[in-house]
Amino acid sequence: xxxxxxxxxxxxxxxxxxxxxxxxxxxxxxxxxxxxxxxxxxxxxxxxxxxxxxxxxxxxxxxxxxxxxxxxxxxxxxxxxxxxxxxxxxxxxxxxxxxxxxxxxxxxxxxxxxxxxxxxxxxxxxxxxxxxxxxxxxxxxxxxxxxxxxxxxxxxxxxxxxxxxxxxxxxxxxxxxxxxxxxxxxxxxxxxxxxxxxxxxxxxxxxxxxxxxxxxxxxxxxxxxxxxxxxxxxxxxxxxxxxxxxxxxxxxxxxxxxxxxxxxxxxxxxxxxxxxxxxxxxxxxxxxxxxxxxxxxxxxxxxxxxxxxxxxxxxxxxxxxxxxxxxxxxxxxxxxxxxxxxxxxxxxxxxxxxxxxxxxxxxxxxxxxxxxxxxxxxxxxxxxxxxxxxxxxxxxxxxxxxxxxxxxxxxxxxxxxxxxxxxxxxxxxxxxxxxxxxxxxxxxxxxxxxxxxxxxxxxxxxxxxxxxxxx
Length: 471
Fold this sequence. Notes:
CATH topology of one domain: Spore Coat Polysaccharide Biosynthesis Protein SpsA, Chain A
Number of helices: 16
CATH superfamily of one domain: Spore Coat Polysaccharide Biosynthesis Protein SpsA, Chain A
CATH class of one domain: Alpha Beta
Distance between the termini: 53 Å
Order of helices and strands: HHHEHEHEHEEHEHEHEEHEHHHHHH
């Protein structure tokens, strides 16, 4: 109850500071709300740094050496790899299987490949698996149950096959378009087993098709910031809210029958949920009082949409999942750190605040200086964030993060607003990778984006006319 009161207090403080900032600014151009956001960002930097240091502390540098030399004959905890896929693009599927064949498998007790489809169109996936894995993997076809149903079936198979060792078994879940790095499973397990109350963990995800255009490069930089800074900070307190589908690990003993039934039967306002499986399973673990962690030492690579249409559909699906999951996040709050209250209030209110800010700025303000000063301040903040990310990763590709700002304003912000308005739409809106990339069919989502950008352009024109005393 105390944490719910704290959450309500945070929401009131954020809203009050935001409203007050429309009328009064202090410290030059910074508003009270701006100062709150700056403090929150500095907290994220500090806690993400501490999280990384914690992971380094628990990652015994000699551990992998002893495994490879044979000094450690048997793992205290086994690993089972669960791969889920549906009619994956053939080159991506080969890439995934080859990476699995080449990973450090010293503690690997089994590989389960659940193929969501049992028609002739799905046969190539098992054929590739037998060809590349040399029958080391257990390949199972099921009848189009969706990713959530495939994960559920995979966990059930693993529990039945390892019924006598559930307490000492961890399950790594990955997708059919994911490339696992050599020691990713071991590093992920070390993170999970670093605290007895950890229930699940995720690694660091990057993009392997960065040469397909500017969009995958921006997404790659955004992933880096989201995993290293944002999820790293929440991980320090054990309340990281989404173990990513391409690379996540769960203690099999934590994923009991109650969690699996809630996972497979999830509904939102009587509408059955299919997308958002990774976020929901993580929140179910958090709601039971277990911790969720993130480590930069376990790395996997995945595919990014190379077309704007597929990317926007993907972001819409993720945004809808976030707002549907708020109920489950609220259920987890009493069992987790108070930092989760801060994260939930910030992530929920921020898009709404920015949306209102732009409408007010463009149509209810005549001071042109506020427009360009706000733009400059935003760029400075973005530069600081990007430099902090560069400090972590020492990789110049993170500077593509600078392009995230205009993409957020023009595309992602209105997508979040549209997601709120269409939360009950449960379609898996991301286009299949083998669909026609030249298809020009548009949805209400795309028309909403057009309307938003026309609104921004109209506001800028109004500013120009006002500055010329023509309006």
